[in-house]
Amino acid sequence: MNVWEGAFVIFLLSLTVLVYLTIPVMLKLRESLKKANKTMDILNKDLPDIMDNLSEISGRVNKASSKLESTVEDIAELEQLISKEIKQPLQNIAQSIGMLLHLANKLFDRKSKK
Asked: What is the rounded end-to-end Cα distance, in angstroms, of the chain?
């Protein structure tokens, strides 16, 4: 047996051991790929329904936020109206009453000093 034949035998033995060790890994990989394919099939089947639901939810959220924004604007307008139409006249009335009370107090003070 010459050197080349010995090297070839060692190479074949190494290749045999390598193939023997990789077979379980390949079987496990094949099983994992089957599971991944099943998962992908389920996702491909259910994904359109999920996307439709997400689209519907997104539309509802957009409508709700638009209504909320409109309501907030209405409330801001109402607050300004209240401030303009009610608050300011009430402040004027309160100020007038305060002046009247002050004048009445001065008037009664003069009468009591006499």
From this structure: 147
